[in-house]
Amino acid sequence: MQTKIVRKIKESHDTVSLELELSPSILNEFKSGQYLDLEFEINGKLYVRPYSVSSISDSSKAWITVKKINKGIVSNYIFDVLKEFDQIQFKKVNGKFFVVPNHSTRKAYYFIAAGVGITPIKSMIHSLLENEPTSLVHLFYANKTQEDILFYPLWLEWKEKYRDQFFVEFILSKSENTGGFFSFLSKKSNTWNGLKGRINELQLNRFLNEHPSQELESHFYICGPEEFNQSISSILKKSVPPSQIHLEYFHIEQSADTNFSPSGKKSHLKVKLRGKDYEFEIDQSKKIIDLLVEKKLNPPYSCSSGACATCIAKLHEGKVKMDVSMALDQEEIDQNWILSCQSRVISDTASIEFME
Length: 356
Ligand code: FES
What we know:
Blueprint: E1 2-12, E2 15-21, H1 24-29, E3 35-42, E4 45-52, E5 62-67, H2 73-80, E6 87-94, E7 108-114, H3 118-131, E8 136-143, H4 152-161, E9 166-172, H5 181-185, E10 195-196, H6 201-210, E11 218-224, H7 226-236, E12 245-249, E13 266-273, E14 276-283, H8 288-294, E15 312-317, E16 320-322, H9 330-334, E17 337-339, E18 343-345, E19 349-354
Parallel strand pairs: 7-8, 7-11, 8-9, 9-10, 11-12, 13-19
Antiparallel strand pairs: 1-2, 1-6, 2-5, 3-4, 3-6, 13-14, 15-17, 15-19, 16-18
Residues 301-304, 306-311, 327, 339, 341 line the site of FE2/S2 (inorganic) cluster.
């Protein structure tokens, strides 16, 4: 389904937001915190990428926020080429990281984000502030510099507007502002008087002590790069049940599109997809999903970076090597689940089945 870009605005030196025109039925299906799978055709090649929605579920708009990655084919295309009124292909709403606010619920929410990982969290926080008015909502947000803090004026506005409900702290790992163009535009000062450093155990425990849950059921939502998520969740797991810790990996676009060089070693691969059987020769250096895209089989995939598990498949026979497996837990790996966007066949034969 085609969707139109209604507006495009620059959020920071390396980040833009796009407002997309989506039908009311899609917007109704969307829950605050989820992402959209979008498809882009760039130089004759199709790319599917997930982008978290930063607006709320009951809004009439869907905003996505995209960070430009060095050599990232899709993010550079969005940043430099796409413009208002261009069309892009919408595939589906996706993701298990969301909140469904309830007016009569009273809980304590802790959101811990790094960089552009704030995008789904902005949607969740906005939704809770509007629709779950007696819950407490806390945000601890880490960035490199003040210029990198996304939606900064909005956080300050909400801090004032929801002063008994919403509590926010920022921490910067490089507190010296570069004084660049966007710092001038946003009238941010060149000196940072707030917290400096990273969210480590000491900082996190201090934040939690200073913002107590008031004995309410607490839920923790973490979104950032892999190391950030793992570090925060392992600190929390010392005192919080796993069912109350929710993780979303910031989908880092890989610049690896061009790095396939054939090894010359071939494997025989059997694939079951949507009830049909296929057989291929595959170079042992090639990722399974890349072959299936090349063969135009429309396999399920989204982030291409091992973060979302949309490309999950069961390995029935043979061996694969996964570059990244952050969307799988050890139990799933032990049960032979694989991420086909990260897997290369390393045995003479292999057989996989997609569950879509
Ligand atoms: S497409 Fe997201 S993990 Fe493979």
